C-alpha cells in the first residue's frame, strides 16, 4: 500500500512539471487555407488527362466525338501536337482490311480446270470455254450462286459493305418500292426448264396391267383426259388410266387380222384412227358410242395401202402418206380425198405446223418441202444440211423450231422462220448423240424438250434441252435396260409424263418432276 501510494504521488508531480504550449490560432488558420488551395489545384484535371481516362477506361465512341468537337471548336486535343490533318484522319480511320495469316505459294499458279465434265457444263457460257482457270471458275460459281439467291446474302457481306449498304439505303427515296426495303427470302423457282440434269422419276409401265405380246408400235396420251393409249402387232388397242402407280386398264379392243402400225387420237379425243401394214383398210374407233367403224374404201384414193397418216390440228382432216411421194388430204366428215400433193422421191416423215396452216415433209433423199394446206402449193424447198437420207421430221408446238432426222443419226434443228425465207437455211444445232438412224422425233407441248430415238439399237433415246440444244446427262441412266428399242415417243398434254413404245411390248413411263400437271 505504501509503495503504491508513493508511485501515484510521483506521477502527479511529474505531470505537473510538463508544460504544454498554447496553440497559435492564426498560424493554424493560415495552414488550413494553404492546404485548401492545394486541394483545389489537385482537383482540377488537365484536358489531356481526361482524354487519357476516356481512352484507357473505355468510351471509345465518346472519345472520337470529343476529339472532333474539340477540333471544330479550336481547342487543344491530344492530336494537336504538331501533326497534320491528314495524319489525324489516318489515326481515326478504322482499319478495314485484314492480312492473311498464311499464304500458299501454289495459289498463285494458273491451273486450268477441264470444263467438259458433266458436273461443270452448266458453268460454261459457250463451247469455247473448254478450259478455265481456278480463279475464273471460282468467280463463275460465285456469280451463279448470287444469281440463284437473288444477290449476295447478308451473312456473306463484310462489315464495311454492310455499313455502306445501310448508308446508301438511308439516302434512297422514302417513296421507293416497299418490297426492296424488307428482309426475307424472295428466291422463287423459275418456270423455264433448266438444262444439264432433268428431274425425272421412273414409274410403272403405262401398260403394266395388260402388256402386249408383241412389239408395240404406238403410244399416245389423250389430249384432255389422264389416259394413255397403246397399240401394236398383237392386233389390239388398249386404254389405261395414268396415275404413275398402278395404271389400271380402262378398255381394250381386238382387231381381227389387223396388226396396228399406227393409232392416233382425234383432236377432241373422242375417236381413234388406226392403220395397218398391208392394205388400205383402216379403222375408226368411236369411244363415246363404243363402236369400231371399218373404212374399206376412200373416194378419190388410188393407193394400195394406207400406212402413215397425221391428224390435222383443227381435227377436220387426215393427211395420208402415199407411195411415190404423194400426200393426200382426207376429210374426216365425208371420208374422201379433197386434195393431193407430190414431192420428188419417197416421203420419210410429215409434220403439221402448230396452227395447221402448213405441212413440213422430209424425203428419203434429204429434201424438206413446206406446203400450204389451203392452196396445196409448195412454199419453199431446201436440202437438209449434210443429210444423205432423211428418216423423220417434227415441228415444235410454239411454231419456232423444226427438227429433221437422218439415217446417220444426226438431228438438225432449224428455225421455222428461216426455213420459210431462205433456200439454204443453216441449222441452229446439229444434235449428234445418236449413232444409228433417228427414226422418232417429238417436241413436248412447251417446246422445251426434244425427244429423239432410234429403233435400230437398245437404249438409243435422248432428251434434248431447248433452247440450249444440250442433252440431259441423266437420261437414260438406269442400272439395267429399260427403254430397249423405241418406236414411238409422246408427252402428256402438260408434259408431266413421258412414254415410249418399245419392241418388248412395254411402254416405259417417266414422271417429269419439273412439270406439275399431267
TrEMBL record:
Pfam families: WD40
Record keyword Chaperone present: no
Cited InterPro entries: Utp18 (IPR045161), WD40/YVTN_repeat-like_dom_sf (IPR015943), WD40_repeat_dom_sf (IPR036322), WD40_rpt (IPR001680)
PROSITE patterns membership: WD_REPEATS_2
WD repeat residue intervals: 347-381
GO cellular component: Pwp2p-containing subcomplex of 90S preribosome; small-subunit processome
Entry protein name: U3 small nucleolar RNA-associated protein 18 homolog
Region listing for Disordered, in residue ranges: 1-20, 148-187
Subcellular location field: Nucleus, Nucleolus
Biological-process GO terms, alphabetical: rRNA processing
The entry's keywords: Nucleus, Phosphoprotein, Repeat, rRNA processing, WD repeat
Sequence similarity: Belongs to the WD repeat UTP18 family.
Residue spans of biased composition, Basic and acidic residues class: 1-16
Functional note: Part of the small subunit (SSU) processome, first precursor of the small eukaryotic ribosomal subunit. During the assembly of the SSU processome in the nucleolus, many ribosome biogenesis factors, an RNA chaperone and ribosomal proteins associate with the nascent pre-rRNA and work in concert to generate RNA folding, modifications, rearrangements and cleavage as well as targeted degradation of pre-ribosomal RNA by the RNA exosome. Involved in nucleolar processing of pre-18S ribosomal RNA.
Main subcellular localisation: nucleus
Amino acid at each position: 500500500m505504501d509503495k503504491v501510494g508513493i508511485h501515484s504521488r510521483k506521477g502527479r508531480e511529474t505531470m505537473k512539471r510538463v508544460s504544454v504550449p498554447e496553440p497559435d490560432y492564426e498560424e493554424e488558420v493560415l495552414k488550413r487555407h494553404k492546404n485548401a488551395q492545394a486541394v483545389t489545384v489537385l482537383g482540377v484535371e488537365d484536358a489531356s488527362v481526361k482524354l487519357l481516362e476516356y481512352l484507357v477506361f473505355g468510351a471509345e465512341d465518346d472519345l472520337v466525338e470529343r476529339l472532333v468537337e474539340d477540333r471544330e471548336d479550336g481547342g487543344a486535343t491530344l492530336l494537336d501536337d504538331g501533326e497534320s490533318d491528314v495524319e489525324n484522319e489516318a489515326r481515326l480511320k478504322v482499319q478495314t482490311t485484314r492480312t492473311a495469316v498464311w499464304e500458299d505459294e501454289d495459289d498463285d499458279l494458273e491451273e486450268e480446270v477441264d470444263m467438259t465434265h458433266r458436273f461443270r457444263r452448266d458453268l460454261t457460257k459457250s463451247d469455247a470455254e473448254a478450259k478455265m482457270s481456278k480463279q475464273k471458275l471460282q468467280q463463275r460459281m460465285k456469280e451463279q450462286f448470287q444469281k440463284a439467291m437473288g444477290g449476295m446474302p447478308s451473312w456473306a457481306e463484310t462489315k464495311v459493305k454492310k455499313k455502306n449498304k445501310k448508308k446508301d439505303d438511308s439516302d434512297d427515296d422514302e417513296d421507293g418500292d416497299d418490297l426492296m426495303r424488307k428482309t426475307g427470302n424472295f428466291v422463287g423457282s423459275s418456270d423455264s426448264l433448266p438444262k444439264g440434269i432433268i428431274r425425272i422419276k421412273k414409274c410403272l409401265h403405262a401398260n403394266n396391267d395388260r402388256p402386249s405380246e408383241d412389239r408395240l408400235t404406238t403410244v399416245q396420251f389423250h389430249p384432255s383426259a389422264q389416259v394413255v393409249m397403246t397399240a401394236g402387232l398383237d392386233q389390239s388397242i388398249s386404254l389405261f388410266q395414268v396415275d404413275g402407280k398402278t395404271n389400271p386398264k380402262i378398255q381394250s379392243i381386238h382387231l381381227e387380222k389387223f396388226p396396228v402400225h399406227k393409232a392416233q387420237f382425234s383432236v377432241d379425243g373422242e375417236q381413234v384412227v388406226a392403220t395397218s401394214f398391208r392394205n388400205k383398210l383402216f379403222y375408226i374407233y368411236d369411244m363415246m358410242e363404243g363402236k369400231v367403224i371399218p373404212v374399206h374404201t376412200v373416194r378419190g384414193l388410188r393407193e394400195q395401202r394406207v400406212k402413215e397418216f397425221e391428224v390435222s390440228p383443227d381435227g377436220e382432216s387426215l393427211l395420208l402418206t402415199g407411195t411415190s411421194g404423194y400426200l393426200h388430204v382426207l376429210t374426216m366428215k365425208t371420208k374422201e380425198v379433197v386434195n393431193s400433193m407430190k414431192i420428188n422421191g419417197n416421203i420419210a416423215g410429215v409434220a403439221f405446223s402448230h396452227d395447221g396452216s402448213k405441212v413440213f415433209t422430209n424425203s428419203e433423199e434429204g429434201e424438206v418441202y413446206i406446203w400450204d394446206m389451203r392452196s396445196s402449193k409448195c412454199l419453199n424447198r431446201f436440202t437438209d444440211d449434210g443429210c444423205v437420207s432423211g428418216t423423220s421430221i417434227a415441228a415444235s408446238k410454239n411454231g419456232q423450231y423444226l427438227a429433221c432426222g437422218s439415217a446417220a443419226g444426226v438431228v438438225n434443228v432449224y428455225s421455222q422462220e428461216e426455213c420459210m425465207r431462205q433456200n439454204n437455211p443453216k441449222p441452229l444445232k446439229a444434235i449428234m448423240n445418236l449413232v444409228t438412224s433417228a427414226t422418232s422425233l417429238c417436241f413436248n407441248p412447251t417446246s422445251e424438250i426434244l425427244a429423239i430415238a432410234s429403233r435400230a439399237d437398245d437404249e438409243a433415246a435422248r432428251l434434248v434441252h431447248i433452247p440450249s440444244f444440250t442433252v440431259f446427262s441423266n437420261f437414260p441412266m438406269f442400272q439395267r435396260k429399260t427403254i430397249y428399242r423405241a418406236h414411238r415417243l409422246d408427252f402428256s398434254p402438260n408434259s408431266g409424263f413421258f412414254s415410249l413404245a418399245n419392241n418388248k411390248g412395254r411402254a416405259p413411263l417417266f414422271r417429269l418432276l419439273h412439270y406439275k400437271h399431267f
